[in-house]
Amino acid sequence: MKAPTGDRLELALDKGEIRTLANGSTVVPVSEVELELKQGSLSALYDVARELSREAPLAVNIESKAERGLRALEGRDIEAHKAGRVELQTDCTAEEAFRTTLTHCLRHIACNTGPVVEAHDAEGVHQVRVGLRRLRAALTAFGDSFHAPVLDDMHERAKTLADIFGETRELDVFALELLEPVESASKSSGLPQLRLALEDLRRQSWKRTIELIHSDDFTGFLLDLGSAIETRVWRESAGPDAVADFLRPARDIACESLTKSFRKAAKRAKGLSHLNTEERHRLRIALKQLRYTSEFTAALFPAKTVAEFLKRLSKLQDLFGALNDAATTEHILHRITEHAGERAGADLFEAAAYVDGWHQSRVQPTWEKTKKRWKRFASLKPYWA
Questions:
Q1: Which of 82, 165, 216, 241 has a CB 3.0–4.6 Å from the CB of 220, allowing a cystine?
Q2: What single DSSP character describes residue 382?
């Protein structure tokens, strides 16, 4: 086919099955639209894909048929993928680092849609959400010169999508991590009712999540992001100062961004002992930004010093994560009892109150550990200084 711009593309419709007799009879269905650029600009490929995503419920899949066949042959289930390392050359420019980081985030999100849709893997939902959050951090981590209206829009769209995935993630965490220990420790007669209402909520939330992955809201977002990266959309309104920043060493930009993120976290931590729940949450978010920025630029600094910094930061974040889980427990329990409606008897409300109390009783001891760990972390000498 020939695009309006004169570029030549090949469109193939593949529908069938991948079959293997190894490890028992395995059948992997194939139903895909494959686009290949034959001549011209890669942006034309994104434009055509974008038109298709507006017309049909399509999902981006970066796993090839050969990879799917090999997975079936080896009897491996599709698995969620963590972000991994952003590979940067130590002497790369800021623009090269920015473009590589955005591509890394795009791939992290896209490679986890399969585990969500095919395997209903809770870790897949978590990784898509993390990928969207990392992307938002990446869009702001390289300074104002890399701002552009299109990227600002991508930032807001990523937040909207992350919030939707976040609803499913919160229910998964509550079901798999927060409710189970209470069920093991208590014989409350209302806990089975609570579990049933929770699982019904999860099924509905998972259905919406899978529908979202096949929607133009999500698929179009990934394609628009890919097109923005390919066309270097940040150059469109760049002035002379911005162009100079594009050519600066990425390490210099990284040092500035890490310093800014570290100072923001320190500012959020002022009066640490007296922070309320909302202020603790803002500190947790600032620490996430610091961690993501450190991970994006890790290849630009000595590995040992970065690893030690991230190790301590990760331990601190784990404690803030536990505090956040306790803070969201009441909200989730309210959703569960509201969902149960007329089925919600006294036993269910009693169980909900018990679960909430069980987690709230752990907040203060966890907070004491958090304050001590923050002091140790804050005393670290920044490796980029």
A1: 216
A2: P
